[in-house]
Amino acid sequence: MTSIVAEPWFRAPSLRRVFELLNADGGEVRVVGGAVRNTLLGLPAGDVDLATTWHPEDVAERAKGAGIKVVPTGIDHGTVTLVIDGIPYEVTTLRRDVATDGRRAEVAFGTDWKADAERRDFTINALYADAKGEIFDYVGGLPDIDSRTLRFIGSAAERVAEDYLRILRFFRFFAHYGHGRPDSEGLKACAQARSKLSTLSVERVWGEMKKLLAAEDPGRALLWMRQAGVLGAVLPETEKWGIDAIPGLIAAEKIFGWKPEPLLRLAAIVPPEAERLEAMAARLRLSKAEEGFLAQFAEAPAIAATLADAALDRQLYRRGAEGIIARLRLSLASARRKSETDPAFLAETAAFHRLLARAERWQRPVFPLSGADVLKAGVPAGPKIGELLTELEDFWIDRNFNVDRATLVARLESRVRSR
Prior knowledge:
Elements: H1 8-11, H2 13-22, E1 29-32, H3 34-40, E2 49-52, H4 56-65, E3 69-74, E4 79-84, E5 87-93, E6 95-100, E7 105-109, H5 113-118, E8 127-129, E9 135-137, H6 141-147, H7 156-162, H8 165-177, H9 184-192, H10 202-213, H11 219-228, H12 230-234, H13 245-256, H14 262-268, H15 274-284, H16 288-299, H17 309-319, H18 321-339, H19 346-361, H20 371-376, H21 383-398, H22 405-418
Parallel strand pairs: 2-5
Antiparallel strand pairs: 1-2, 1-8, 3-4, 4-5, 6-7, 8-9
Helix pairs in contact: 8-9, 8-10, 8-11, 10-14, 13-18, 15-16, 16-18, 18-19
């Protein structure tokens, strides 16, 4: 098990200041959650969050008195952020749930570390480390760290009913940290409550799905989501399309050194149909960039392995590179996986690899003419300018962009004279 004490993040002067500030005058503070979990799993710590017996107003007052910047990120819910040396530390008062409705909780502040642990979601997220590095485990998280078991604290059904987003968090954390099969009680609770996902904001749903799709290998989590009916509840577009492309894509990412891209993985499990993807983007309120990626993917043509280089260049110019590169990556991943059991696909794999390399280094050429050239040729302002430019650009594209400006100007003047 990795030592918390030995970690640079734990010994950072900024964190030691937080300990000195809040481990005084009868109060206490401990690191909690992801930083402890990840360190024990041998992973980068990420953000360092803390829990304290001090009330948020007291945390803020003590920090200001020490010259520390305070950001009231969620003071009504017990959270303030202390910024030291440019590093943010979220500090949250110990809490217990008073009432929950599946979307939000009414909490009361307290000083009971065990009660605070028991209101959290998973055992591996409820581990605390004090200033000396001693680990406190009130819910059996350490054995689950060792076995990489993702398990709800206490009753899985009760934890899910407190916040239905925990259904997606269950699969997201399983994708990142789980091993083997998901916990059966947790899986059952998620399956039984899947209809409640519709009560959540779509921004929260997509946020969790995007994090899940960013896991090193989300394949097993997606499989169990489908088995539990959860995947269809949040992404009905996958119902008749399936997730069979994911294993091949994950393998290709590792072999070819591709950075995992949640949107490409999403594209692999939804049909490339413009109307459906546009509706999905609207439903999930994706960002403009995310929506644009899916639109380019849907509009990109299916590229055959036998496509000539010049023909690929023309497609890249007309359709844009992003969607075509996505299509080529998925085609390459599929062909490579088939080649593992059928050598006949080796040539197709090599061909897609070559086309992808060309597409990734392709630079869009600049059309040599502009509207000013058409005006200069004697065409009055109006729609005829656009028509002539399009005609000449098509001529230039069809000749693989190898027509120089002088030739295009001569052709333009000839077309104007013939009108």
